[in-house]
Amino acid sequence: MMNPQSCVKIQKEWDIVGARQLGRELAKEIGFGTVDQARIATAISELARNIYLYANHGEIRYEIIQVPEHKAGLCLIAEDEGPGISDISQVMKDGYTTSGGLGAGLPGVKRLMDEFEIHTEVERGTRIRTIKWLR
Amino acid sequence: MDLQIKHTEKNEQTIISLSGEIDAYTVTKLKETFSTTMNSEGKDVIVDLEEVTYMDSTGLGVFVSALKTAKENDGELKLVNVQDRVYRLFQITGLNEIMDVNKAAIRGVNE
Amino acid sequence: MENFFKERAEEYKKLLAEYIETQDEKALYEVELVSKAFIKHNILPEEIINLHIKALKEIYPDLVVSYEHSMDFLLEAMISYGLAHQEIQVLREQQIALKSEISIAAEMQQKLLRTNKPEVPGVDIGVISVPANQMNGDYYNFLLNTDGSIGIAMADVIGKGIPAALCMSMIKYSLDSFPEETMRPPVILNNLNRVVERNVESNMFITMMYAQYFPNSGRLAFSSAGHEPGYYYNAVEDRFTEITTRGLVLGVSEDAEYEEKELLINKDDMVILLTDGVTECRDGERFIEIHEVLEVIKQYSHLSSQEMVEQVYKHFERLQDFKLQDDFSLLILRKTV
Known about the structure:
The complex is a heterotrimer.
Chain A: E1 6-10, H1 15-30, H2 34-55, E2 58-67, E3 71-80, H3 88-91, H4 105-112, E4 115-121, E5 125-133
Chain B: E1 3-10, E2 13-22, H1 27-37, E3 44-55, H2 57-72, E4 76-80, H3 84-92, E5 100-101
Parallel strand pairs in B: 2-3, 3-4, 4-5
Antiparallel strand pairs in B: 1-2
Helix pairs in contact in B: 1-2
Chain C: H1 2-22, H2 25-40, H3 45-59, H4 65-112, E1 123-130, E2 138-144, E3 150-157, H5 161-177, H6 185-199, E4 206-214, E5 219-225, E6 230-234, E7 239-243, E8 261-264, E9 270-274, H7 276-279, E10 282-283, E11 286-287, H8 290-299, H9 305-319, E12 328-335
Antiparallel strand pairs in C: 1-12, 2-3, 3-4, 4-5, 5-8, 6-7, 6-9, 9-12, 10-11
């Protein structure tokens, strides 16, 4: 069972704040604790900043996942039509982004969340889908 | 010991003044400088080594590849004010015969 | 894991309450131990702050709200530290793996480059080659030719570490594969120059001194490709002379030409080949002069060639406080009859 999606457009740096805000509210609603709320917000920051820096604009969509009597979670989808990533394995390596001072990067998002999927095509754009499960 | 790199453009020439030691640790910096200054066509680059007190063989390697880049781009590479100890290195390796290495300053530099 | 965290969390709360009460150093010491256990179990900083907030709330149920907010703020600020910590952890593990790979590679290099010091009557040879780091960029090689002559190569790859080591293996295999009739020093350097020129990046090159010694006649032919000059010690005159030839380093220009010089050596004379790791030794801030090296060699000249090179190495190792700046290689050949 899925809730209707919510969505935040990322066009300027301040949109990152809005994206975090909505993510945190949804996380709280689902029942995530303070630490996980902070982690989800940080993951959203990374995703949104990537869009803002490399693709100029794109969006972050939120889905609340409810599997009855089983588990609940928050799914984030970050999508842009930017330049894409030519070498994913390089970008997913530790030590790649931090040296440039860009933050935790995609490996960081992967660590903060539980599931992580990336689809990217050069010149076409990037789509990242990531889930945090309520424990 | 560190390597200081100073960059001046003068007429059609680029003058790179180095001071300090060129070794395996500082050589990356020099490599980067060369790769950014030498990639345009027909550029003359003068490297002033007056303040370079020590250079090891890794330094030579960078000058050799800089020379190759210069030749490919129809440019020139000139080394001036080379101290005796460093000059000896160019002499032993025979590189002074294929490279423009000068112990003294040339006109236009350090004026 | 869950249990571990719960137990330690209880302990943390207890220690915190104790400390607030007494400001006792003992509680601080004990929390240090708890903290170490957390690190060992990869507990991230934000979780510890969360633990702290919860503990505080239990100790002070009516905690000032603004204080509580400030702690949430701190927790948020710690998330990135937690990430950086995890990343460093992974990088550290990778580094350990890399280090062990390099040491295996270094061992392989030694095996690949192994050469046997020829035992020929009338000639006493000593040689030492010590890398400054794990992989040696210096290299020496002996060849025993069917005409009874001994070929000796002393080389230094410009560039250090693994690329230099790979390059050395290439030289070694080229040397071994040349037909014997071409083994005159300038011919060898010419051939090697072409191999290196074709196969190696432009910022890497090799210097080499190649010598061919005829034990029966005492004739030494040598040729240098931009290598550090060697020395000839004349025992009768008790004098060192520099030996070198003009010639460009290997791998820079295809057209390089190499010249050959000859020397006739007599009983007790010595030929010394070395790399710049020897001549560029430092005594504090000062570079040593070559005559100092030669004096040290002479000081030990009553010993066998092998003992001599070892003692000379020990001397300069001590002088540089046991931290070699560059690979150190020294070879001495002495005519004994």
